[in-house]
Amino acid sequence: MPELKRIAIIGASAAGVAAAFALRRAGFDGHLSLYGDDVREPYERPALTKTLSGGHGGIHPIVAPHTYSDSGIDLQLGQRVVGIRGRTVTLEDWSAQQYDSVLLATGASARRLQVPGARLGNILYLRNADDAERIASRLSTGGPLVVAGGGFVGLEVAAVARGLGIDVTLVESELLPFMRSAGPEVARLVADLHRDHGVRFFTGDRVTEFRGEREVAEARLASGRILPASTVVVGIGAEPNTSLAIGVGAACRGGVLVSAAGQSSVPWLWAAGDLATCSDPHGVTNRSIDHWDSARHQGHAVAHAMLGIATKQAPVPYVWSDQYELTYQSYGRAISGDSVVFREGSQPHQFLAFRVCGDRIHAVSGIGLPREVRAGKVLIEKQSIVDPRALRDPHLDLCNIP
Fold first, then answer.
1. Extended beta strands in 225-325, E state
2. What pTM value is reported for the model?
3. pLDDT tens, residue by residue, 305-356
4. 325-400 topology per CATH
5. Bridge-based pairing state of the strands 123-125 and 231-234
């Protein structure tokens, strides 16, 4: 591997920041630039929904601001990279810098709802701190709120809005919200949790039109229903920001295609985080994990690979979501054909669910039982042999399973 003297990381995201510090800790002492198009210090994206009610102290930096300069990281904020050509990174002001290797960590952008009226005012998306401020400002004026999409973003926004006493209607094209993320069995419990808090659902339906003068006033659904709306928040997924990779000829399909080490089809170009798509040691191929914890671990691993350092096996995927002062947690990845085993007594506000195949656990999720969820993670890591019937027993101590 040729000696690297200059490395650029484009995207001051969880993956980008993790990679920058991992490079320094691994001994890279050359020039290291970290470009972020946001003027703010890099911040924790999972905390954004917590700022919507106005009572959680704002966004949180990933690391203390002085840490970048202390580590010799050239942090370039408010600098949008417009192109890469021949390892030369060009900024919006047309200044350019040459690098030996480039890591893309530009994440993903909110997928836009393409329907008539989608450009009306107060139809909002949540991907960054500016988006969060706009949504918080609208929620402070009251409702009704229509949420389009029942994934993590949609459900977290709905939970915050209900906590403020706002009338909330959530529209989801699947038969249940959260079904893509958790499967129908767990999704039913999560949906019931929200119903218990007053969220109204229209599932198996979708928004086909927004109506209003300058600002949205109502949403029309495919079923013909008309929903009043002073604010709409759309959370229908994300699109990986692959334009820079495409510009240098890197292979892209649902993201930047990378090896297990994070290297793209262009040898000097690497990718990590939401925009990277690769095979995964836990059963799913060519799929990225759009979540903070996985992005952070991937940034660390790719940084080592860039220096020719062998990386450890990827950790068991972990996701979480705060809703109504409760935290949903999930480790692992379900595989087609898995069966679902619930601990007896599971309820919307407290449950434990396992995705199993034969005598192996592929994934565990729950609300209100963090110790048990973490113990399930250990069983996945150890590939422990379990009796699925025993997992139903609320008295079973998972920590005692070898």
1. 226-228, 231-234, 238-240, 256-257, 269-271, 276-277, 318-323
2. 0.90
3. 999 998 776 788 899 999 999 999 999 988 888 999 999 999 999 999 999 9
4. Enolase-like; domain 1 (3.30.390)
5. parallel
